[in-house]
């Protein structure tokens, strides 16, 4: 069963990947991050703001963005949480949608909590290496 990838989550991964590759404590401008990832800069900025809000990235006016946590310390679960229910109104009582979400949350949490952003990047690189070494297997 495949999980339908949330575009915001995909962009968040892409932004973290860029910052991880180009970080070294340096500040990165949104225009460079969005150009490299082929993302609309306004949307990229919104994603980065959510990452700042979650404490994974820091920003400074006029300087841009940089990682505030190592990618191997950010679990995919935490990243998903950063983009889920952001700004959704709090329910008065526990509604069915919330109960469903909590159940899903607990199940997915067990699986994703051990998976870090760095793990995903390594998997992608390994897949790319495999394609280069064995192009006929496609």
In short, what is this structure?
The protein is mostly helical and 138 residues long.
Task: Describe, in plain words, how this protein is organized in 3D.
The chain has helices at 7-21, 30-37, 41-53, 76-83, 96-112, 117-133, and strands spanning 57-60, 64-67. The longest helix has 17 residues, at 96-112. It has six helices and two strands. It has one domain (7-137): Arc Repressor Mutant, subunit A (Orthogonal Bundle), CATH 1.10.10.10. It has a two-stranded antiparallel ribbon. 57% of the residues lie in helices and 6% in strands. The radius of gyration is 17 Å and the shape is globular. It has 138 residues and is mainly alpha-helical. A hairpin with a 3-residue loop joins strand 1 (57-60) and strand 2.
Give the arrangement of secondary structure elements.
Elements: H1 7-21, H2 30-37, H3 41-53, E1 57-60, E2 64-67, H4 76-83, H5 96-112, H6 117-133
Antiparallel strand pairs: 1-2
Helix pairs in contact: 1-2, 1-3, 2-3
